[in-house]
Amino acid sequence: MTDIFKGQLNRRTAMGTLAGFAAGIMLAGCSGGDDRAAGPVAAANADGPPEKPNLKLGFIKLTDMAPLAIALEKGFFVEEGLNVTLEPQANWKVLLDGVIGGQLDAAHMLAGQPLAATLGYGTQAHLIAPLSLDLNGNAITLSKRVWQMIRPSLPMEGGRVRHPISAEVLRPVVERFKAEGRPFNMGMVFPVSTHNYELRYWLAAGGLNPGFYTQGDVAGTVGADVNLSVTPPPQMPATLEAGTIDGYCVGEPWNQQAVARGIGVPVVTDDQIWHNNPEKVLGLREDFAASNPATVAAMVRAIIKAQQWLDAANGGNRAEAVQILSRPNYVGADAAVLAASMTGQFTFEPGDTRPAEGFNIFFNEFAGYPYYSDAVWFLTQMRRWGQIAEDHPDSWYLDMAKKVYRPDLYLAAASRLVEDGVIAASAVPETDGFRAPTNQFIDGMSYDGRKPNLYIAGFRIGLKEGQRVTAAGVIDA
Questions:
Q1: Phi, psi of 223 (to 5 degrees)
Q2: Can you give the residue range of the structural domain that contains 179?
Q3: Nearest-CA neighbor of 405 among 445, 427, 432, 437?
Q4: Where residue 24 falls among pLDDT bands split at 50, 70, 90?
Q5: Residue 123, domain member (yes or no)
Q6: pTM of the full structure
Q7: Which of 173, 404, 436, 471 has its CB surrounded by the most CB atoms within 10 Å?
Q8: Does residue 473 form part of some domain?
Protein backbone atom coordinates (compact mmCIF):
# COMPACT_ATOMS: atom_id res chain seq x y z
CA MET A 1 0.00 0.00 0.00
CA THR A 2 1.41 3.44 -0.87
CA ASP A 3 2.00 6.11 1.76
CA ILE A 4 -0.45 8.33 -0.10
CA PHE A 5 -3.21 5.75 0.17
CA LYS A 6 -2.42 5.12 3.85
CA GLY A 7 -2.88 8.82 4.43
CA GLN A 8 -6.18 8.79 2.57
CA LEU A 9 -7.31 5.77 4.54
CA ASN A 10 -6.38 7.15 7.95
CA ARG A 11 -7.98 10.49 7.12
CA ARG A 12 -11.25 8.89 6.08
CA THR A 13 -11.34 6.52 9.04
CA ALA A 14 -11.05 9.52 11.32
CA MET A 15 -13.64 11.39 9.30
CA GLY A 16 -16.07 8.52 9.68
CA THR A 17 -15.61 8.54 13.45
CA LEU A 18 -16.13 12.30 13.69
CA ALA A 19 -19.25 12.14 11.56
CA GLY A 20 -20.72 9.45 13.79
CA PHE A 21 -21.05 6.71 11.19
CA ALA A 22 -23.14 3.90 12.61
CA ALA A 23 -23.70 0.47 11.10
CA GLY A 24 -22.23 -0.46 7.79
CA ILE A 25 -18.89 -0.97 6.21
CA MET A 26 -16.22 0.91 8.14
CA LEU A 27 -13.54 2.48 5.98
CA ALA A 28 -10.71 1.09 8.06
CA GLY A 29 -11.51 -2.32 6.64
CA CYS A 30 -11.14 -1.37 3.02
CA SER A 31 -7.37 -1.80 2.80
CA GLY A 32 -7.24 -5.49 3.72
CA GLY A 33 -4.53 -6.95 5.95
CA ASP A 34 -4.82 -6.99 9.71
CA ASP A 35 -6.45 -3.60 10.14
CA ARG A 36 -9.95 -4.71 9.23
CA ALA A 37 -12.54 -3.31 11.60
CA ALA A 38 -15.34 -5.45 12.95
CA GLY A 39 -18.80 -3.93 13.35
CA PRO A 40 -22.48 -4.76 12.86
CA VAL A 41 -21.41 -5.63 9.33
CA ALA A 42 -17.80 -6.80 9.17
CA ALA A 43 -15.74 -4.76 6.76
CA ALA A 44 -14.17 -7.94 5.45
CA ASN A 45 -17.52 -8.92 3.98
CA ALA A 46 -17.37 -5.97 1.58
CA ASP A 47 -14.33 -7.45 -0.13
CA GLY A 48 -15.82 -10.91 -0.56
CA PRO A 49 -17.95 -12.24 -3.40
CA PRO A 50 -21.39 -10.64 -3.82
CA GLU A 51 -24.00 -12.32 -1.65
CA LYS A 52 -26.59 -11.67 -4.37
CA PRO A 53 -24.89 -11.50 -7.77
CA ASN A 54 -28.15 -11.38 -9.79
CA LEU A 55 -29.71 -7.95 -9.44
CA LYS A 56 -32.63 -6.04 -10.94
CA LEU A 57 -32.27 -2.25 -10.92
CA GLY A 58 -35.01 0.20 -11.86
CA PHE A 59 -34.77 3.49 -13.70
CA ILE A 60 -36.83 6.22 -15.34
CA LYS A 61 -36.15 7.17 -18.96
CA LEU A 62 -33.91 10.16 -18.35
CA THR A 63 -30.39 11.09 -19.40
CA ASP A 64 -29.16 10.89 -15.81
CA MET A 65 -29.78 7.14 -15.64
CA ALA A 66 -26.59 6.98 -17.75
CA PRO A 67 -24.30 5.59 -15.00
CA LEU A 68 -26.46 2.47 -14.78
CA ALA A 69 -26.58 1.94 -18.55
CA ILE A 70 -22.84 2.51 -18.91
CA ALA A 71 -22.01 0.21 -15.98
CA LEU A 72 -23.92 -2.53 -17.82
CA GLU A 73 -22.86 -1.82 -21.40
CA LYS A 74 -19.15 -1.27 -20.66
CA GLY A 75 -18.93 -4.38 -18.47
CA PHE A 76 -18.32 -2.67 -15.12
CA PHE A 77 -21.04 -4.66 -13.36
CA VAL A 78 -19.58 -7.90 -14.71
CA GLU A 79 -16.10 -6.86 -13.57
CA GLU A 80 -17.50 -6.64 -10.04
CA GLY A 81 -19.13 -10.08 -10.24
CA LEU A 82 -22.67 -8.83 -10.82
CA ASN A 83 -25.28 -9.95 -13.33
CA VAL A 84 -27.55 -6.90 -13.60
CA THR A 85 -30.88 -6.41 -15.37
CA LEU A 86 -32.01 -2.80 -15.89
CA GLU A 87 -35.76 -2.33 -15.99
CA PRO A 88 -37.53 0.94 -16.95
CA GLN A 89 -40.37 2.00 -14.68
CA ALA A 90 -43.59 3.77 -15.60
CA ASN A 91 -43.20 6.58 -13.07
CA TRP A 92 -41.43 7.48 -9.83
CA LYS A 93 -44.17 6.03 -7.60
CA VAL A 94 -43.99 2.65 -9.32
CA LEU A 95 -40.20 2.72 -9.03
CA LEU A 96 -40.33 3.58 -5.32
CA ASP A 97 -42.87 0.84 -4.61
CA GLY A 98 -40.69 -1.65 -6.49
CA VAL A 99 -37.69 -0.94 -4.28
CA ILE A 100 -39.73 -0.99 -1.07
CA GLY A 101 -41.53 -4.19 -2.07
CA GLY A 102 -38.34 -5.97 -3.12
CA GLN A 103 -39.22 -6.35 -6.80
CA LEU A 104 -36.23 -4.07 -7.46
CA ASP A 105 -32.95 -4.43 -5.58
CA ALA A 106 -32.02 -0.77 -6.08
CA ALA A 107 -32.89 2.09 -8.42
CA HIS A 108 -32.01 5.35 -10.10
CA MET A 109 -33.96 7.42 -7.60
CA LEU A 110 -34.98 10.99 -6.89
CA ALA A 111 -32.79 12.32 -4.07
CA GLY A 112 -35.86 13.20 -2.02
CA GLN A 113 -37.40 9.73 -2.25
CA PRO A 114 -35.24 7.84 0.27
CA LEU A 115 -35.45 10.83 2.63
CA ALA A 116 -39.24 11.08 2.37
CA ALA A 117 -39.75 7.32 2.74
CA THR A 118 -37.54 7.20 5.84
CA LEU A 119 -39.46 10.17 7.24
CA GLY A 120 -42.73 8.38 6.50
CA TYR A 121 -43.93 11.06 4.09
CA GLY A 122 -46.22 9.33 1.60
CA THR A 123 -44.96 5.87 2.46
CA GLN A 124 -42.83 4.37 5.25
CA ALA A 125 -39.61 2.47 4.60
CA HIS A 126 -35.99 2.88 5.65
CA LEU A 127 -34.14 3.58 2.41
CA ILE A 128 -30.55 4.68 2.01
CA ALA A 129 -28.46 6.46 -0.62
CA PRO A 130 -24.84 5.23 -0.72
CA LEU A 131 -24.05 7.16 -3.89
CA SER A 132 -25.10 10.30 -5.74
CA LEU A 133 -25.52 9.65 -9.47
CA ASP A 134 -24.97 13.14 -10.87
CA LEU A 135 -25.05 16.91 -10.56
CA ASN A 136 -27.36 19.22 -12.54
CA GLY A 137 -29.28 17.92 -15.56
CA ASN A 138 -32.71 19.59 -15.23
CA ALA A 139 -34.32 22.65 -16.78
CA ILE A 140 -37.56 24.62 -16.68
CA THR A 141 -39.44 24.89 -19.97
CA LEU A 142 -42.37 27.18 -20.82
CA SER A 143 -44.92 26.60 -23.55
CA LYS A 144 -44.34 28.39 -26.83
CA ARG A 145 -47.45 30.49 -26.15
CA VAL A 146 -46.19 31.70 -22.76
CA TRP A 147 -42.70 32.25 -24.19
CA GLN A 148 -44.14 34.52 -26.87
CA MET A 149 -45.92 36.48 -24.13
CA ILE A 150 -42.76 37.15 -22.12
CA ARG A 151 -40.05 37.33 -24.78
CA PRO A 152 -40.62 41.00 -25.81
CA SER A 153 -39.91 42.10 -22.23
CA LEU A 154 -36.70 40.10 -21.76
CA PRO A 155 -33.35 41.91 -21.69
CA MET A 156 -30.99 41.12 -24.56
CA GLU A 157 -27.26 40.61 -24.59
CA GLY A 158 -25.18 40.10 -27.73
CA GLY A 159 -28.31 39.67 -29.83
CA ARG A 160 -29.66 36.89 -27.58
CA VAL A 161 -31.89 36.76 -24.51
CA ARG A 162 -29.88 37.28 -21.33
CA HIS A 163 -29.73 34.29 -19.02
CA PRO A 164 -30.59 33.25 -16.38
CA ILE A 165 -34.21 34.34 -16.70
CA SER A 166 -35.98 35.24 -13.47
CA ALA A 167 -39.47 33.94 -12.76
CA GLU A 168 -40.42 37.56 -12.12
CA VAL A 169 -41.13 37.84 -15.86
CA LEU A 170 -44.02 35.42 -15.38
CA ARG A 171 -45.88 37.62 -12.91
CA PRO A 172 -47.82 39.63 -15.56
CA VAL A 173 -48.73 36.38 -17.32
CA VAL A 174 -49.95 34.77 -14.09
CA GLU A 175 -51.98 37.89 -13.29
CA ARG A 176 -53.50 37.85 -16.80
CA PHE A 177 -54.48 34.20 -16.41
CA LYS A 178 -56.05 34.98 -13.04
CA ALA A 179 -58.03 37.89 -14.48
CA GLU A 180 -59.33 35.50 -17.15
CA GLY A 181 -60.44 33.08 -14.44
CA ARG A 182 -57.97 30.28 -15.12
CA PRO A 183 -54.98 28.98 -13.21
CA PHE A 184 -51.39 29.02 -14.39
CA ASN A 185 -50.32 25.38 -14.26
CA MET A 186 -46.85 23.89 -14.29
CA GLY A 187 -45.66 20.29 -14.13
CA MET A 188 -43.00 18.53 -12.10
CA VAL A 189 -42.28 14.84 -11.74
CA PHE A 190 -43.00 13.94 -8.09
CA PRO A 191 -43.88 15.75 -4.84
CA VAL A 192 -40.44 15.07 -3.30
CA SER A 193 -38.44 15.44 -6.50
CA THR A 194 -35.54 17.79 -7.02
CA HIS A 195 -37.64 19.19 -9.87
CA ASN A 196 -40.44 20.19 -7.49
CA TYR A 197 -38.03 22.02 -5.19
CA GLU A 198 -36.11 23.64 -8.06
CA LEU A 199 -39.31 24.85 -9.70
CA ARG A 200 -40.60 26.14 -6.37
CA TYR A 201 -37.27 27.82 -5.65
CA TRP A 202 -37.24 29.57 -9.03
CA LEU A 203 -40.84 30.73 -8.75
CA ALA A 204 -40.45 31.99 -5.18
CA ALA A 205 -37.20 33.80 -6.03
CA GLY A 206 -39.24 35.68 -8.64
CA GLY A 207 -41.98 36.58 -6.14
CA LEU A 208 -44.49 33.88 -7.12
CA ASN A 209 -45.89 31.56 -4.46
CA PRO A 210 -45.92 27.91 -5.64
CA GLY A 211 -48.20 26.88 -2.74
CA PHE A 212 -47.92 24.97 0.52
CA TYR A 213 -48.67 21.39 1.52
CA THR A 214 -51.06 20.40 4.30
CA GLN A 215 -50.98 17.06 6.09
CA GLY A 216 -51.95 14.25 3.72
CA ASP A 217 -51.98 16.67 0.78
CA VAL A 218 -49.89 15.76 -2.28
CA ALA A 219 -51.00 18.74 -4.39
CA GLY A 220 -49.40 21.51 -2.35
CA THR A 221 -51.53 24.33 -3.74
CA VAL A 222 -52.56 26.22 -0.57
CA GLY A 223 -52.02 29.92 -1.27
CA ALA A 224 -50.52 29.21 -4.69
CA ASP A 225 -50.03 31.78 -7.42
CA VAL A 226 -48.88 28.94 -9.70
CA ASN A 227 -50.33 25.42 -9.43
CA LEU A 228 -47.89 22.52 -9.69
CA SER A 229 -48.93 19.00 -10.64
CA VAL A 230 -47.21 15.66 -11.24
CA THR A 231 -46.49 14.36 -14.75
CA PRO A 232 -44.11 11.46 -15.54
CA PRO A 233 -40.98 12.77 -17.33
CA PRO A 234 -41.51 11.17 -20.79
CA GLN A 235 -45.06 12.53 -20.87
CA MET A 236 -44.08 16.15 -20.22
CA PRO A 237 -43.87 17.32 -23.86
CA ALA A 238 -47.23 15.78 -24.81
CA THR A 239 -48.90 17.26 -21.72
CA LEU A 240 -47.45 20.67 -22.57
CA GLU A 241 -48.57 20.42 -26.19
CA ALA A 242 -52.09 19.47 -25.07
CA GLY A 243 -52.28 22.69 -23.02
CA THR A 244 -52.82 20.87 -19.72
CA ILE A 245 -49.75 22.61 -18.30
CA ASP A 246 -48.10 25.91 -19.25
CA GLY A 247 -44.57 24.83 -18.39
CA TYR A 248 -42.61 22.21 -16.49
CA CYS A 249 -39.42 21.27 -14.72
CA VAL A 250 -37.93 17.98 -15.86
CA GLY A 251 -34.66 16.24 -16.61
CA GLU A 252 -33.29 15.70 -20.08
CA PRO A 253 -33.99 14.87 -22.79
CA TRP A 254 -37.54 16.12 -22.27
CA ASN A 255 -36.68 19.85 -22.35
CA GLN A 256 -34.77 19.42 -25.61
CA GLN A 257 -37.66 17.33 -26.93
CA ALA A 258 -39.91 20.37 -26.51
CA VAL A 259 -37.40 22.48 -28.48
CA ALA A 260 -37.14 19.87 -31.23
CA ARG A 261 -40.93 19.70 -31.54
CA GLY A 262 -41.32 23.47 -31.47
CA ILE A 263 -43.74 23.40 -28.54
CA GLY A 264 -41.66 24.90 -25.72
CA VAL A 265 -38.60 26.91 -24.74
CA PRO A 266 -36.31 26.16 -21.77
CA VAL A 267 -35.83 29.37 -19.79
CA VAL A 268 -33.46 28.33 -16.98
CA THR A 269 -31.34 25.29 -16.12
CA ASP A 270 -31.09 23.91 -12.62
CA ASP A 271 -27.38 24.77 -12.61
CA GLN A 272 -28.48 28.40 -12.97
CA ILE A 273 -30.89 27.98 -10.05
CA TRP A 274 -28.30 26.27 -7.83
CA HIS A 275 -24.81 25.80 -9.23
CA ASN A 276 -23.75 22.14 -9.24
CA ASN A 277 -26.84 20.96 -7.42
CA PRO A 278 -27.23 17.25 -6.58
CA GLU A 279 -29.74 15.35 -8.65
CA LYS A 280 -30.43 11.56 -8.57
CA VAL A 281 -29.10 8.95 -6.14
CA LEU A 282 -28.75 5.19 -6.03
CA GLY A 283 -31.57 4.22 -3.66
CA LEU A 284 -32.09 0.90 -1.90
CA ARG A 285 -33.49 -0.59 1.28
CA GLU A 286 -31.34 -0.34 4.38
CA ASP A 287 -31.98 -3.95 5.31
CA PHE A 288 -30.85 -5.07 1.86
CA ALA A 289 -27.56 -3.19 2.32
CA ALA A 290 -27.07 -4.65 5.81
CA SER A 291 -27.64 -8.21 4.56
CA ASN A 292 -25.62 -7.83 1.35
CA PRO A 293 -22.61 -5.60 2.08
CA ALA A 294 -20.35 -7.10 -0.59
CA THR A 295 -23.11 -6.81 -3.17
CA VAL A 296 -23.67 -3.15 -2.38
CA ALA A 297 -19.94 -2.42 -2.40
CA ALA A 298 -19.60 -4.12 -5.80
CA MET A 299 -22.61 -2.23 -7.18
CA VAL A 300 -21.24 1.12 -6.00
CA ARG A 301 -17.78 0.38 -7.38
CA ALA A 302 -19.23 -0.51 -10.79
CA ILE A 303 -21.28 2.69 -10.92
CA ILE A 304 -18.31 4.84 -9.87
CA LYS A 305 -16.35 3.32 -12.79
CA ALA A 306 -19.23 4.25 -15.10
CA GLN A 307 -19.35 7.79 -13.72
CA GLN A 308 -15.64 8.19 -14.33
CA TRP A 309 -16.04 6.89 -17.91
CA LEU A 310 -18.84 9.39 -18.60
CA ASP A 311 -16.71 12.39 -17.57
CA ALA A 312 -13.37 11.12 -18.89
CA ALA A 313 -11.32 12.81 -21.64
CA ASN A 314 -13.20 16.12 -21.38
CA GLY A 315 -16.42 14.47 -22.43
CA GLY A 316 -14.83 12.40 -25.15
CA ASN A 317 -17.08 9.43 -24.34
CA ARG A 318 -20.31 11.39 -24.42
CA ALA A 319 -21.06 10.76 -28.10
CA GLU A 320 -20.93 7.02 -27.47
CA ALA A 321 -23.04 7.45 -24.35
CA VAL A 322 -25.66 9.29 -26.40
CA GLN A 323 -25.89 6.39 -28.84
CA ILE A 324 -26.30 3.92 -25.98
CA LEU A 325 -28.97 5.98 -24.23
CA SER A 326 -30.93 6.48 -27.45
CA ARG A 327 -31.75 2.77 -27.53
CA PRO A 328 -35.40 2.01 -26.71
CA ASN A 329 -34.49 -0.13 -23.69
CA TYR A 330 -32.85 2.92 -22.06
CA VAL A 331 -34.07 6.49 -22.71
CA GLY A 332 -35.36 5.86 -26.21
CA ALA A 333 -35.08 9.45 -27.42
CA ASP A 334 -33.56 10.55 -30.70
CA ALA A 335 -29.76 10.74 -30.46
CA ALA A 336 -29.75 14.34 -31.72
CA VAL A 337 -32.14 15.36 -28.94
CA LEU A 338 -29.98 13.65 -26.30
CA ALA A 339 -26.83 15.23 -27.71
CA ALA A 340 -28.41 18.70 -27.52
CA SER A 341 -27.80 18.76 -23.77
CA MET A 342 -25.32 15.95 -23.07
CA THR A 343 -22.34 16.88 -25.22
CA GLY A 344 -21.26 20.17 -23.69
CA GLN A 345 -24.01 22.41 -25.01
CA PHE A 346 -27.60 23.34 -24.27
CA THR A 347 -30.20 24.67 -26.71
CA PHE A 348 -32.68 27.19 -25.32
CA GLU A 349 -34.44 27.83 -28.62
CA PRO A 350 -33.63 27.33 -32.29
CA GLY A 351 -30.54 29.40 -33.05
CA ASP A 352 -29.65 29.82 -29.38
CA THR A 353 -27.32 26.98 -28.42
CA ARG A 354 -24.83 27.82 -25.69
CA PRO A 355 -21.82 26.09 -24.13
CA ALA A 356 -22.88 24.02 -21.11
CA GLU A 357 -20.02 21.69 -20.24
CA GLY A 358 -21.31 21.25 -16.71
CA PHE A 359 -24.94 20.58 -17.57
CA ASN A 360 -24.48 16.86 -16.78
CA ILE A 361 -21.73 16.01 -14.29
CA PHE A 362 -21.38 12.39 -13.24
CA PHE A 363 -17.88 12.05 -11.72
CA ASN A 364 -16.10 15.41 -11.63
CA GLU A 365 -16.72 17.85 -8.78
CA PHE A 366 -17.06 14.82 -6.44
CA ALA A 367 -20.45 14.20 -8.02
CA GLY A 368 -20.77 10.68 -6.61
CA TYR A 369 -20.19 11.53 -2.96
CA PRO A 370 -23.47 11.61 -0.98
CA TYR A 371 -23.00 14.77 1.10
CA TYR A 372 -25.01 15.18 4.30
CA SER A 373 -25.47 18.84 3.37
CA ASP A 374 -27.24 17.82 0.15
CA ALA A 375 -29.70 15.72 2.15
CA VAL A 376 -30.20 18.59 4.61
CA TRP A 377 -31.02 20.95 1.72
CA PHE A 378 -33.84 18.71 0.53
CA LEU A 379 -35.16 18.54 4.09
CA THR A 380 -35.12 22.35 4.37
CA GLN A 381 -37.29 22.58 1.27
CA MET A 382 -39.69 19.96 2.64
CA ARG A 383 -40.07 22.11 5.73
CA ARG A 384 -40.23 25.36 3.74
CA TRP A 385 -43.28 24.15 1.80
CA GLY A 386 -45.05 22.24 4.58
CA GLN A 387 -44.21 18.62 3.74
CA ILE A 388 -42.48 18.58 7.12
CA ALA A 389 -45.29 20.00 9.20
CA GLU A 390 -43.44 21.02 12.38
CA ASP A 391 -40.24 22.80 13.36
CA HIS A 392 -37.18 20.74 14.26
CA PRO A 393 -33.80 21.71 15.72
CA ASP A 394 -30.74 21.75 13.49
CA SER A 395 -29.57 18.47 15.03
CA TRP A 396 -32.70 16.71 13.76
CA TYR A 397 -31.83 17.59 10.15
CA LEU A 398 -28.34 16.13 10.51
CA ASP A 399 -29.62 13.01 12.26
CA MET A 400 -32.12 12.40 9.47
CA ALA A 401 -29.48 13.00 6.80
CA LYS A 402 -27.20 10.43 8.46
CA LYS A 403 -29.94 7.81 8.47
CA VAL A 404 -30.29 8.00 4.71
CA TYR A 405 -27.12 9.35 3.09
CA ARG A 406 -24.29 6.87 3.56
CA PRO A 407 -20.87 8.31 2.68
CA ASP A 408 -19.30 5.47 4.68
CA LEU A 409 -20.50 3.02 2.04
CA TYR A 410 -19.38 5.29 -0.77
CA LEU A 411 -15.92 5.72 0.74
CA ALA A 412 -15.51 2.00 1.30
CA ALA A 413 -16.13 1.39 -2.40
CA ALA A 414 -14.19 4.40 -3.66
CA SER A 415 -11.17 3.68 -1.48
CA ARG A 416 -10.96 0.16 -2.85
CA LEU A 417 -10.89 1.67 -6.35
CA VAL A 418 -8.14 4.07 -5.24
CA GLU A 419 -6.15 1.16 -3.85
CA ASP A 420 -6.55 -0.72 -7.13
CA GLY A 421 -5.47 2.31 -9.15
CA VAL A 422 -8.84 2.65 -10.90
CA ILE A 423 -9.54 6.20 -9.68
CA ALA A 424 -7.20 8.83 -8.28
CA ALA A 425 -7.15 9.58 -4.56
CA SER A 426 -7.82 13.21 -5.49
CA ALA A 427 -11.19 12.13 -6.95
CA VAL A 428 -12.49 11.41 -3.43
CA PRO A 429 -13.20 14.52 -1.32
CA GLU A 430 -11.59 15.38 2.00
CA THR A 431 -14.72 16.27 3.93
CA ASP A 432 -16.68 15.71 7.11
CA GLY A 433 -19.75 15.15 4.95
CA PHE A 434 -20.60 18.80 4.36
CA ARG A 435 -19.99 20.97 1.34
CA ALA A 436 -18.61 24.43 2.04
CA PRO A 437 -21.30 27.09 2.48
CA THR A 438 -22.39 28.57 -0.85
CA ASN A 439 -24.42 31.47 -2.20
CA GLN A 440 -24.44 30.21 -5.80
CA PHE A 441 -28.22 30.32 -6.06
CA ILE A 442 -30.33 32.36 -8.46
CA ASP A 443 -31.44 34.59 -5.56
CA GLY A 444 -28.00 34.86 -3.94
CA MET A 445 -29.16 33.14 -0.75
CA SER A 446 -26.37 31.63 1.34
CA TYR A 447 -26.70 27.99 2.38
CA ASP A 448 -24.77 26.31 5.18
CA GLY A 449 -25.88 22.72 5.74
CA ARG A 450 -24.95 22.97 9.40
CA LYS A 451 -27.50 25.76 9.95
CA PRO A 452 -30.73 24.64 8.27
CA ASN A 453 -33.10 26.71 10.41
CA LEU A 454 -31.18 29.92 9.70
CA TYR A 455 -31.43 29.10 6.01
CA ILE A 456 -35.18 28.42 6.13
CA ALA A 457 -35.76 31.68 8.02
CA GLY A 458 -34.09 33.72 5.28
CA PHE A 459 -36.65 33.13 2.53
CA ARG A 460 -39.23 35.77 1.64
CA ILE A 461 -41.73 33.07 0.65
CA GLY A 462 -41.91 29.94 2.77
CA LEU A 463 -42.82 28.78 6.25
CA LYS A 464 -41.19 30.51 9.21
CA GLU A 465 -40.48 29.15 12.69
CA GLY A 466 -43.70 28.31 14.50
CA GLN A 467 -45.86 28.36 11.38
CA ARG A 468 -47.94 25.54 10.00
CA VAL A 469 -50.30 25.10 7.07
CA THR A 470 -54.05 24.57 7.17
CA ALA A 471 -56.53 24.39 4.32
CA ALA A 472 -57.25 28.06 5.04
CA GLY A 473 -53.63 29.07 4.72
CA VAL A 474 -50.48 29.54 6.78
CA ILE A 475 -51.03 30.23 10.48
CA ASP A 476 -48.81 30.81 13.50
CA ALA A 477 -48.93 27.84 15.85
A1: 75, 20
A2: 139-275
A3: 432
A4: very low
A5: yes
A6: 0.91
A7: 404
A8: no
